[in-house]
Amino acid sequence: MAAPVPFTDIGKAVNDLLGKDYPAGSVKLEVKTNTFSGVNFTATGAKDNKSGVINGELKTKYTDKRNGVTFTEAWSSSNLLTGEIEVADKLARGLKLAVNASLLPAVGQKNVKLTTEYKHSKLHSRTNVDLFKGPAVASDLVVGHEGFLVGGDVAYNVHDGRVTRYNAAIGYAVPEYSLALNASQACSVFSGSYFHRVNADLEAGGKAVWDSKANAQAVGIEVGAKYTLDRTTFVKAKIDNGGRLGLGYTQVIRPGVKVSLAGLFDTTRINENAHKIGLSLLLESN
Question: In the chain, which residues have pLDDT < 50?
Answer without folding.
Answer: none
